[in-house]
Amino acid sequence: MLSYTIPAHLRGDTWNGIDSVTITLSGVPVNITDSTIRMQLREDVDSPVALELSTNNGHIVISDGTNGVFQIPPILITIPFGTYKYDIQITFPNGINKTYITGTWQIVPDITQ
Predict the structure, then answer these.
(1) pLDDT (tens digit per residue) in 66-112
(2) Is the pTM of the predicted complex or chain greater than 0.70?
(3) Which of 26, 38, 87, 93 is the most buried (most CB within 10 A)?
């Protein structure tokens, strides 16, 4: 499992997203074709979901499933400022769930609202 801190971002600004994420296991791409990918941000493990990006809501796009590649398109970030925990979980067509990436993301206050 990979741990990654997303660079801090200003609340109220459009985040550029991530152009390409490749899921591998021992250096071999994992086939994610027809999978569901979800990324949830929470202040703490038991906190309510502040933001969910997923293949279901169009905020995560599988761009090359056979080679384990997906992207997160740009999105306006309007959640309250703070430091959030997140993970990225993949549900494969056979029902198996795997979490491949975890980390934190700081949303900082903006002046112009």
Answers:
(1) 999 999 999 999 999 999 999 999 999 999 999 999 999 999 999 88
(2) yes
(3) 38
Domains recognised in the chain with CATH numbers = 2-108 (2.60.40.10)
- Buried b / exposed e over 35-46, threshold 16 CB at 10 Å, is bbbbbbbbeeee
CA dihedral 66, 49, 45, 96 (to 10 degrees): -30
Label residue 61 by pLDDT band (50, 70, 90): very high
